[in-house]
């Protein structure tokens, strides 16, 4: 019911039960619907949302720092490709060894 009210599925409540058995059809969210679900979660649980975003950001920065150190010692002819990450912004990932580094580190060491 909540899923239908939030507009996350095109199904009406009467149509929901038969479709529920087709798991993928019901729960496969489009990007627009995923964005709406995120907005609802943010309104319902702002502290949990902030905590999860902060944890994700801190984790990414931690692992990128390790990857930056490794990128200078790995025996890889890095093939850096530019990406955008939520909250992180521009960063680079090596298509060969899959290390991820910040834009600043890329400019200081590989550009
Ligand atoms: Zn590499």
Give an overview of the whole structure.
The protein is α+β, with helices and mostly antiparallel strands and 111 residues long. The chain has two domains: 44 residues, no CATH class; 53 residues, no CATH class. 59% of the residues lie in helices and 14% in strands. It has a three-stranded antiparallel beta sheet. The chain is elongated and about 45 Å long. The mean pLDDT is 82. The site of zinc ion has 7 residues, from loops.
Please describe the structure with a list of short key phrases separated by commas or semicolons.
alpha+beta; 111 residues; binds zinc ion; 6 helices; 2 domains
Topology:
Layout lengths: L1 H4 L7 H8 L2 H5 L3 H14 L1 H28 L6 E6 L3 E6 L5 E3 H7 L2
Antiparallel strand pairs: 1-2, 2-3
Helix pairs in contact: 4-5
The structure holds zinc ion (ZN).
Zinc ion (ZN) binds next to loops.
N-to-C SSE series? HHHHHEEEH
Q: Which strand-content bin applies to the residues? A: 5-15%
Percent helix? 55-70%
Helix vs. strand class: alpha+beta
Sheet with most strands: strand arrangement: 1-2-3
Any idea what the radius of gyration is? 20 Å
The low-pLDDT segments are none
Q: Describe the global form.
A: elongated
How many structural domains are formed by the residues? 2
Number of strands: 3
Largest sheet descriptor: 3 strands, antiparallel
- List the total number of helices: 6
Bound molecules: zinc ion
């Amino acid at each position: 019911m909540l899923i239908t009210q939030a507009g996350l599925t095109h199904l009406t409540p009467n149509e929901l039960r038969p479709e529920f058995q087709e798991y993928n059809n019901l729960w496969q969210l489009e990007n627009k619907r995923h964005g709406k679900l995120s907005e609802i979660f943010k309104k319902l649980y702002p502290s949990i949302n902030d905590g999860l975003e902060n944890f994700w950001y801190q984790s990414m920065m931690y692992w990128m720092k390790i990857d930056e150190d490794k990128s200078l010692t790995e025996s890889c002819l890095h093939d850096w490709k530019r990406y955008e990450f939520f909250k992180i912004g521009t960063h680079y990932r090596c298509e060969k060894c899959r290390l991820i580094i910040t834009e600043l580190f890329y400019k200081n060491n590989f550009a």
